[in-house]
Write a structure and sequence with these properties.
By secondary structure, the chain is an alpha/beta fold. It contains six helices and seven strands. A hairpin with a 5-residue loop joins strand 5 and strand 6.
């Protein structure tokens, strides 16, 4: 699987730490920028490339995902979710677990994959440590979509809205 990763200035250091880590996990990573630290950059422009590459892959039915990183991750997730077919979840640390209706205990990162087949992850760099981000990314990349009928139906509804 290929992982596209992009960040603005607030996520620049975290992106630099995650790229080799994701490669160590066995994934192909493409750094979509920012390639230089510019405290005046605008996150919509910077992360757009990762999202365009992801949507191109979606049209080609190529297995890939995107990770976008900013200060809070909020704006990056908002931008990502404007791209057709992108289902971007937001992670900004320390989530509790839930027990879903089938009795599975899931944390927020696992839930985004199992229930929503999230294909993009936005990380709030100012709210997580590097280790928390690595743990979340690993879990998110390794957790499969459940493919339960109700979840497939809901993902289809998301993509059609």
């Amino acid at each position: 699987m290929k992982v596209y990763i992009g960040s603005d200035h607030a996520g620049f250091a975290l992106k630099a730490a995650l790229i080799p880590y994701i490669r160590e996990l066995g994934y192909t990573v493409e750094d979509c920028g920012a390639h230089l630290l510019d405290t005046e950059d605008d996150y919509p422009k910077v992360i757009r490339l990762a999202l365009l590459k992801l949507t191109d892959d979606l049209r080609e039915d190529t297995n890939s995902r995107a990770i976008v990183i900013g200060g809070s991750g909020q704006g990056e997730a908002m931008v990502a979710n404007r791209f057709k077919g992108v289902r971007c979840a937001l992670f900004y640390g320390g989530a509790k677990t839930q027990v879903d209706t089938t009795g599975n205990e899931l944390d927020i990162v696992g839930s985004t994959r199992v229930h929503n087949d999230a294909n993009a992850l936005s990380i709030g760099a100012r709210f997580v440590t590097q280790d928390e981000a690595k743990d979340a990314v690993k879990k998110w990349l390794e957790t499969p979509f459940s493919k339960e009928t109700r979840h497939v139906r809901r993902v289809w509804q998301i993509d059609e809205s």
